[in-house]
Design brief:
Rossmann fold, five-stranded antiparallel sheet, globular, alpha+beta
């Protein structure tokens, strides 16, 4: 059967595989599969189970639910997971026997958000994080107000960080809770005006470690994140001394001698790009070691895709059974690979080639690994890897375990990207990828679409991107690159644009444009540029500084750094990432705002923005649109409703994701066909 080209609606058919969890004995793996119910315009998520001995893969949970965060009990007999009932929109921890049968609800918590379930070593308890919904804003309270015609109450804000894009208002603090697996009884074990994350049980079950900023002023000292110990019963906290800086994803060694974490030593603004490292601290002696000091790459996953949330990180590092080495992911030149390091700081990669590993798990002995892995022509699937640990670790070849998208892949023509490197203005090598139409003819000349990623401290790379494949299928050369500011390279490569956007990064993007225009199959008169978030900022900067492109698309963008500084969910720290402040020293912010140069625009511009975007608020798009209309420029503003956020293109309502793609296609065809 002849394969067809990718269409926008293929978004609804792709199954999203995630969060693999290998059973303690290495015989099975439970994982999540997220699908889109196009008819009811919603996402469903269920647990699936893979047998690692015979390769059988089957669906494990069903229904109108979103099941997430599956975790094996230490004896491998039960699986705990977080279930959200899509009708009631309530989340609780549920349990299921590993050999199947009906799942049952364990916790009976009030409305709120639950995360990070972790079993105690003896399997009698589960620790987790919980942020309750404020009593004024529960579904029940809202319903009561509606029934009697009352208005919603005001929110009284006393904190700087009081909301988060994609989450909403943070009216209540997130703390650690512990529940009894037999009775379901749950107890809060930390409190105070702080947020707590990343619980990890000590191997003897006597303590739970977690991370929290409990400094005298967490908002002025965001870097004072510490590791704390608490009894499973609650009570006094003990702080483990560690270098000042951001940290998370903690993991206790099986022998109880070390706590591993991912982070970096810094007293800087959290926006400043740092390559995260793997650290260990001995909670008994206080000894601290940075194990990846000589690895100048970012630990974790910094790759962007429209197949999952941005910045999912790489999860916790995994220990081997001897407590002698750790396993983790590393972002490198558009890839994300599995690495290992011993306690002396000897690190090595265990995988190679073009791939994006976005989740890892292993059995208790860390010899059987399951990796969630994507490639440019393959949405994420699970692969197995066997590792032998000695003074040097060795790994077998990757073997594909799941093929949940095989039917879809059999029907569509996908384009394989061509990796390219080109010189920027100062001789710096810049990496990029060219995605050509599936029926590419080198004797023809094609329109080109240059994509600029968000962040800016993230990377494009060797992962599946439906939006890119769609535009290639429609006859465009799609070109995406990692200009300076991107992660996946030396720390200095990202840090050079700190507080100075629109200089080196702009010149790198224009070097990419020159490179593309020099290709014999690219029609230089039909080039378009597009980007979201920081990529939207750079698109705005480009159209205010050059008329090189036939049209442009700016998505969830930044146009005015002065207004952005005080209205984003992360208000800018004075003299932090940016020089000055937004009230009486805005000069640097204004000099680097595309809005300042908006009168120069000659390029037709499509503005896409969400009313529910808290990261780059809707006012950014409003200012840009109003200025361009007053200046009688060619502009269209597509404004998505309040139920969408900064992540519309990745996790927004399915019908609106399709609407966005189709409007981009229409705009490109109008100007570049």
């Amino acid at each position: 059967m002849a394969k067809r080209k990718v269409v926008a609606e293929d978004l609804l058919a792709i199954k999203l595989v995630g969060d693999p969890q290998v059973s303690p004995d290495g015989s099975k793996c439970v994982f999540t599969v997220k699908t889109i119910d196009g008819e009811k315009n919603r996402y469903l998520s269920h647990l699936w189970l893979a047998d690692l001995t015979d390769g059988e893969v089957r669906q494990f949970t069903f229904g109108e639910v979103s099941d997430a965060a599956p975790r094996w009990s230490p004896d491998g007999m039960q699986i705990a997971f977080i279930r959200t009932d899509l009708r009631e929109k309530r989340s609780q921890i549920w349990l299921m026997r590993a050999d199947g049968g009906e799942a049952w609800q364990l916790t009976k918590l009030d409305e709120g958000s639950i995360g990070e379930p972790v079993w105690s070593p003896d399997g009698s308890k589960i620790a987790f994080t919980f942020r309750p919904t404020h009593p004024d804003w529960t579904q029940e309270a809202r319903k009561k107000r509606q029934e009697i015609g009352k208005s919603n109450p005001p929110r009284v804000i006393t904190r700087l960080f009081y909301r988060l894009d994609g989450v909403g208002f943070l009216d209540m603090r997130q703390h650690l809770w512990v529940c009894d697996v037999r009775t379901g009884g749950a107890k809060q074990i930390t409190d105070g005006d702080y947020d707590d994350y990343s619980p990890a049980w000590s191997p003897d079950g006597s303590k739970i470690a977690f991370v929290s900023n409990r400094s005298d002023d967490p908002e002025e000292k965001p870097y004072e994140v510490d590791i704390w110990l608490v009894s499973p019963e609650g009570g006094e906290l003990t702080k483990i001394p560690t270098p000042t800086g951001y940290k998370g994803n903690i993991a206790w060694s099986p022998d109880g001698e070390w706590l591993a974490y991912i982070g970096h030593e810094s007293k800087d603004d959290p926006w400043v790009p740092r390559n995260d490292k793997v650290w260990v601290v001995n909670p008994h002696t206080g000894e601290v070691r940075c194990l990846t000091e000589t690895l100048d790459r970012d630990v974790g996953n910094a790759t962007l895709s429209d197949m999952r949330e941005a910045f999912t990180g790489g999860g916790r590092p995994l220990w081997d059974a001897e407590s002698s080495r750790l396993f983790f992911t590393v972002s490198d030149k558009g890839n994300c690979h599995l690495y290992t390091v011993d306690l002396n700081g000897n690190w090595q990669p265990l995988t190679e080639g073009a791939m994006d590993i976005y989740a890892i798990s292993a059995d208790r002995s860390a010899s059987v690994f399951v990796l969630a892995l994507s490639k440019p022509t393959m949405p994420g699937e699970l692969f197995t890897l066997r590792v032998q640990s000695a003074s040097v670790a060795t790994a077998t070849e990757l073997r594909q375990l799941t093929r949940l998208n095989a039917d879809w892949l059999d029907k569509v023509q996908l384009s394989e990207p061509e990796e390219v490197w080109f010189d920027s203005f100062d001789g710096t090598k810049i990496q990029g990828w060219l995605l050509k139409p599936p029926d590419f003819d080198p004797t023809k000349r094609y329109p080109l679409l240059l994509y600029i990623h968000g962040g800016p401290h993230a990377q494009y790379g060797n992962t599946f991107f439906h939006e890119f494949q769609l535009h290639a299928a429609r006859g465009y050369i799609v070109f995406y690159t990692n200009p300076r500011g991107s992660m996946g390279y030396e720390e200095s490569f990202a840090a050079i644009i700190r507080g100075n956007w629109g200089e080196v990064d702009f010149r790198d993007v224009m070097a990419a444009t020159d490179f593309a225009a020099s290709l014999p199959y690219v029609d230089e008169a039909r080039m378009a540029v597009a980007g979201g978030s920081y990529g939207g900022y750079m698109t705005n900067w480009i159209v205010t500084h050059t008329d090189r492109f036939r049209c442009a698309i700016t998505d969830r963008s930044v146009v005015d750094l002065v207004s952005m500084a005080g209205t984003s969910d992360f208000p800018f720290k004075p003299d932090g990432y940016w020089e000055g402040n937004f009230w009486d020293r805005p000069e640097k912010l204004w000099a680097q705002s595309p809005l300042r140069y908006v009168a120069n625009v000659k390029t037709p511009l499509l503005i896409i923005h969400s009313e529910g975007d808290l990261r780059c608020p809707i006012g950014q798009a409003e200012e840009l649109f109003a200025a361009l209309k007053r200046l009688k420029k060619e502009v269209v503003f597509v404004r998505y409703p309040q139920e969408t956020s900064h992540g519309l293109s990745r996790s927004g309502p399915p019908d609106l994701r399709l609407d966005r793609l189709n409007r981009i296609c229409e705009w490109l065809d109008k100007w570049c066909r």
